[in-house]
Structure formats: C-alpha cells, structure tokens
Q: What sequence folds into this?
C-alpha cells in the first residue's frame, strides 16, 4: 500500500517555465488536497477536490491549476512559474473530510525552486 | 475569516525541560483540532481533539482542548533531542475536507 505518492521530489524551474506536480493515492480516498508550505507560515491550501471531476479553490490558488479526472490522481499545474512559487508542496488525501488519525494522509512533498 | 494562531513561533530548550505549545483558533463550525509533528518531510499525526477537557496522551506528549476559550495546548515533558521539530496545529471545520493550519512552532531541544 503506497499511500500518497508525489513526484518529483525536487525541481528547479526558470521564471516563466511550466510544470506539473504529480500526486497519486491508492487508498480510494474521495478528498484530495494541495498545500504549499513556506518557512514560518504553516501549510496553505491551494486547491482541493471532493471527488473525480470536482475541484475548488483554497486559500492561495493564483498561479495554479488542477484537474481530477480519476479518483486516484490530482495533478497540480504551474503555467508561468514565478519566484513567489518557490516553496514545498504537499499533496494529501482523506476519506472523512480531514478528520481522524487515518483520515488524512500526506505525500512526502516536492521542493520547488523558481530562479 | 477562519484563523489558527500558534505561539510561540520558536522555542529553544534543553533536554529534560517541559514545554507547552499553544494554539488558538477562530473557525466557523468547528469540528476537530489536530496536532502534527513535522521533521524533515511530511507532517505526522499526533492527536485529534473534538471535546473540551479530555486530555489525549501518548508517552511524554499530551494535549487538551478548551472549546469555550477556543484554545488548545500541547505539552511535552522530559524533552529529548528527537523532539526537535516543527509542531503544527490544524483545525477542521465541519462539512469541508480542508484543514486550516497555524504557522507552526519550531522546537529545538539542545543536549
């Protein structure tokens, strides 16, 4: 059971480049999330999805896009990378609306640097 | 606007000390409060609290929630260098899947 798998683990982008952060879960969780973490700022929600075909904005969605064509996959797209998007990105999934010890599983994170 | 605030933001102690980390919140339709420990990678779950006054305990760590004062504390007794980490508090509003995180408290335990 792999849980939540994120790729890549590290990436350096030039300003204006685009990329997709991949996230896959094999737990049949209906909810999936993308967070970013900046030093001293905790985790901020970028986008989330309550099921295949349904996505919604979180707290800091500007500069990002998502899609949820299957239950398992929730990729995060950066179209025009900016230095402000330098951060650590975490994907997560849950089956009970974010509640409980087993209800919320994080991926191992992607460290992105935009130069 | 929903908000979670942690204090202090950083803390340096010596092994054997006891520490108390604080988390206050303002959230519409509160459902639960969660504590996480984050070392080098993803946050790992510590506690979930839903009811006031009921202490959750795991080894040297304990936590309690006060829903009247909108406040939770995380206590660590007899600290060890392995307790060095960022401690995150998060609140789950009802009827959403989202977690609202505080800024985190960075704890450093010196030998």
A:
């Amino acid at each position: 059971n792999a849980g939540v798998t994120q790729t890549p683990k590290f990436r350096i982008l030039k300003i204006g480049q685009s990329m997709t952060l991949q996230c896959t879960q094999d737990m049949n969780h209906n909810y999936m999330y993308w967070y970013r973490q900046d030093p001293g700022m905790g985790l901020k929600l970028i986008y989330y999805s309550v099921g295949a075909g349904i996505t919604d904005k979180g707290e800091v969605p500007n500069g990002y896009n998502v899609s949820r064509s299957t239950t398992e996959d929730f990729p995060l797209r950066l179209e025009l990378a900016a230095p402000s998007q330098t951060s650590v990105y975490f994907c997560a999934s849950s089956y009970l609306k974010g509640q409980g010890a087993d209800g919320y599983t994080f991926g191992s994170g992607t460290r992105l640097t935009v130069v | 606007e929903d908000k979670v605030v942690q204090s202090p933001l950083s803390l340096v102690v010596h092994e054997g000390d006891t520490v108390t980390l604080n988390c206050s919140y303002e959230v519409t339709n509160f459902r639960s409060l969660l504590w996480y420990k984050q070392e080098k990678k993803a946050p790992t779950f510590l506690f979930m609290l839903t009811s006031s006054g009921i202490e959750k305990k795991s080894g040297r760590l304990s936590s309690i929630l006060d829903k009247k004062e909108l406040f939770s504390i995380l206590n660590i007794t007899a600290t060890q260098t392995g307790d060095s980490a960022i401690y995150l508090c998060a609140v789950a509003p009802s009827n959403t899947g989202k977690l609202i995180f505080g800024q985190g408290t960075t704890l450093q335990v010196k030998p």
Q: What stands out?
A: Chain A has one domain: 4-97. Chain A has a mean pLDDT of 91. Chain A is about 0% helix and 50% strand.
